[in-house]
Amino acid sequence: MLKPEWERALQQCPQNPKHHGEGDVWTHTLMVLEALQADPDFQALAEEDRGILTRAAWLHDVAKPLCLQPDLSCPGHARKGSQMARQLLYEADYPWRQRETVCQLIRYHMVPYRLVDAPDWQRQILAMGLNARCDLLTLLARADARGRICRDQQGLLDQIELFAQLAAENPPRFADDHSRVTYFRRGGDPERVVYHQPRCRVTVMSGLPAAGKDHWIARHGDGLPVVSLDGLREELEVPPNGDQGAVIQAAREQARAHLRAGRDFIWNATNLSAQLRQRTLDLCFDYEADVRLVYVEAPLAEIERRNQARSRPVPAGVVERMLRRWELPDRCEAHELIQSL
After folding, report:
1. From residue 101, how far is each of 80, 169, 248 by CA, in Å?
2. Is the CB of residue 214 less than 8 Å from the CB of residue 301?
């Protein structure tokens, strides 16, 4: 399942003995798998769900070696682990829907231990309800707690059961799309109805280079004006691996002109991380736009073939860096999410 280099990294990664008396991350991973397979609830699942959970268990701590601190803590390893798992499974051509279920389980696998005492517990549980399988997350967290040696194991298991109850009692229900987006951007009452009179609609593209964004725009763009970062790079003669500051500034100026005029348009860029998307989305929401996110994906071999056929291929090193920070858009980010696969 794991590439040899990741397995070696886990074997060599120590853990805080207070929480992991069993030792290194690899030993913990094997214990989690054993605990998962012994769980009657896991055994009762459909074959596909068992496969998803098994992959999530293998990879749930894959980023700990990269995130390891001198005090043996690993802050951010869940989010980074979901990105690493996405790249590994994508390169292995693992089916898209199952892959993303695995990645969301890894992304949220620490939440059940801490949710009850978190001040924003409701926001977290609603976000997970939109993006993850909370039933599978409960089983993964339970195996994670059982697959270790620590004094507070029963306390962890109690927290997980409370998480399962909260997830069941708080399904995500919003009055409309704008109320949902406003809640995740600003907080407040999730049942509040937020009035929205959009000035225009912005379509924000997301996807790896050569994934098919231009093709989607040609088929579904309705002739709308396009703010294209690739086009601006060519116009400004900036290579993909060069300083992108001037390109981004020019794109934002074009976008502001459309937004001020209340004109629908398309923002065409890779937008592969939540942080990068947020800058564009903030701009659109500042002008009271209705925002549609369109995510486009193609198999890696096809992307590589298309990229090499371009007049100006994106360097392999740039694509590799994109894969390492790759996060798919989710329903917390925009009014509408379209996935074109």
Report:
1. 15, 22, 32
2. no
E strands, the chain, are 201-206, 226-228, 265-268, 290-296, 336-340
The Cβ of residue 27 has, within 10 Å, a number of other Cβ atoms equal to 17
The string of DSSP codes covering 37-57 is: HH-HHHHTS-HHHHHHHHHHH
Q: Is the separation of the CB atoms in 32 and 141 below 8 Å?
A: no
**DSSP per residue, 52-80:** HHHHHHHHTTTTHHHH--TTS--TTHHHH
Q: How far is residue 125's CA from residue 123's CA, in Å, rounded to a whole number?
A: 6
User: Which of 65, 106, 68 lies closest to 85 in space, CA to CA?
Assistant: 106
**Residue found under tokens 């398309």:** 266
Residues 6+ apart with CB under 8 A from 38: none
Rounded CA gap, 311 and 66, in Å? 36
* CA dihedral for 326, 118, 36, 72, sign (positive or negative): positive
- Contacts for 261 with CB less than 8 Å, ≥ 6 apart: 200
SS3 205: strand
Indicate the average pLDDT of the chain: 94
Query: For residues 340 and 216, is the Cβ–Cβ distance under 8 A?
Result: yes
Q: DSSP assignment of 299-323, as one string?
A: -HHHHHHHHHHSSSPPPHHHHHHHH
In order of start, what are the domains of the chain with their CATH numbers? 4-169 (1.10.3210), 201-340 (3.40.50.300)
Interval 14-68: pLDDT, tens: 999 999 999 999 999 999 999 999 999 999 999 999 999 999 999 999 999 999 9
Question: 267-317 pLDDT, tens per residue?
Answer: 999 999 999 899 999 999 999 999 999 999 999 999 999 989 988 888 888
Q: Are 86 and 99 in contact (CB under 8 A)?
A: yes
